[in-house]
Amino acid sequence: MTHEDDRFFMRKPWVYDPSRKPPRRADADLGFNTRALHAGFKPGKDLEKFRSFVPPIVQSMTYPYERFDKIPYPVYGRTKTPTAAVLEERLASLEGGEAAVTAASGSQALFNLIFTIARPGDNVVTSLHIFGEGYKQAAAIFPERCNVEFRFVKDPASPESWDREIDRRTRLVWVETPSNPCLFVTDIAAVAEVAHAHGVPLLVDNTTATAALQKPMELGADIVLLSITKFLAGNATVLGGAIVGPEALVEDIRWNTTEFVGAIMQPFDSWMTLQFLETLSLRMERHSANAQKVAEFLAAHPKVERVNYPGLRTHPQYDLARRQMKAGGGLLSFVVRGGMKGAATVIDAFQLITHAVTFGTSRTICMHPPTITHEHMTPEERAAAGIDDGLIRLSVGLEDPDDIIRDLEQALAKL
Asked: What would the mean pLDDT of 3-26 be, rounded to a whole number?
């Protein structure tokens, strides 16, 4: 039988080859904003039957054969849809990767990656500075159900600490930077050097910064994890995730995990994300500028004990963040007096800011990590990760910054 795309039969397990250099992308010379608008689709040329200026929504889960012995690609919605294919190409272009595969959420994308590359007895090295549902996968789901161990480095700022945890059964080193919710910044290049010395690939979760502000693959990362749900979509209307990396890995995930799990990103959500990506760079500039002003206000407030934001000179990794990131991003967190009671008082007093479980939206929202996203951690683990009882995570939106600050000011006055 013939098939329309050789990747249809790329079902062999991926094997990491540290000596392999991915081919240079054909669009590598184009600017970021140009790729955010054009990567993956040429109006009037691609998907020729539609003659559309924007990528069309192909709301179909199966694709007809042209004849008995010619297999279409895509063939079925569990593996790929035409609209998701455009999104995957655009995400790969923005991150500077070879290929991408989408998933139903960022958490699902992480699960698909680990389930694909790890086997019973293997391990993954990471830190406590990871998102809550990722921690739950690392602390309970994979160890208890798949016999895959997760090792948490004691000092993520030290390359030696990462080095000590890696052994011959390590299949992945996983970094989230800046981290959610405490904005810890990990030195990507330094950890990449350590991982590669052991012949192990480095995964960087780039959800908080996005490729508009940080380029992990230029710093040595092999794989990038994305929660499309957050800043990439930007307005709390889409649920999705993605893995960007070597094409062989991407197709291994697609054919050996996604095809059977079936948790895919739907065509309509893929289409909406394509529209939102067109303004990603502009939005991240505004998020960052607003967050910087809010962080500076909070840092000077007498009822705030600590502010976590990489754009502040008081941040422990401020110099690293300046080298590694274009700007500080739109996420910050701060600790108020009075512990959990103090946090509840402030959150309940907000009038403009919304209490909700996500971040990266155009509207400013807040959340209490100790009781929501990171409740699965032990008190000792939360303390080690800097997640105090009085910690409030703030996703700074696109409103006028003075209005956000006024709402914070009146809420803090209730303490």
From this structure: 79
Percent of the chain with pLDDT over 70: 96
Closest among 398, 333, 327 to 364, alpha carbons compared: 398
Residue keyed to tokens 């206000």? 297
Taking residue 173's Cβ as centre, other Cβ atoms within 10 Å add up to 28
B/e letters for 330-365, b = 16+ CB within 10 Å, e = fewer, are bbbbbbbbbeeebbbbbbebbeebbeeeebbbbebb
- Unique residue bearing structure tokens 């250099």: 21
Map tokens 């690392």 to a residue: 138
Q: CB-based burial of residue 314 (10 Å sphere; 0-12 exposed, 13-18 middle, 19+ buried)?
A: exposed
326-353 pLDDT tens trace: 999 999 999 999 999 999 999 999 999 9
CATH number reported for the structural domain that contains residue 312 in this entry: 3.90.1150.10
- 257: three-class secondary structure by DSSP: helix
Residues 398 and 316 in one domain: yes
DSSP string computed for 309-343: -TTSTTSTTHHHHHHH-SS--SEEEEEETTHHHHH
Average pLDDT over residues 148-157: 98
Q: Are residues 381 and 399 in the same domain?
A: yes
Residue ending a domain, choose from 248, 277, 306 = 277
109 and 216 fall within a common domain? yes
Residues 270, 158 share a domain: yes
- Residue 392's domain comprises 280-412
Percentage of the chain beyond pLDDT 90 is 89
Q: Residue 51's pLDDT is what?
A: 75
3-state helix, strand, coil split of the chain in percent (to 5) is 40, 15, 45
3-state secondary structure 354-373: EECCCCCCCCCEEECHHHCC
Q: Report how many domains make up the chain.
A: 2
Kindly state whether residues 168 and 105 are assigned to the same domain.
yes
Same structural domain for residues 258 and 288?
Answer: no
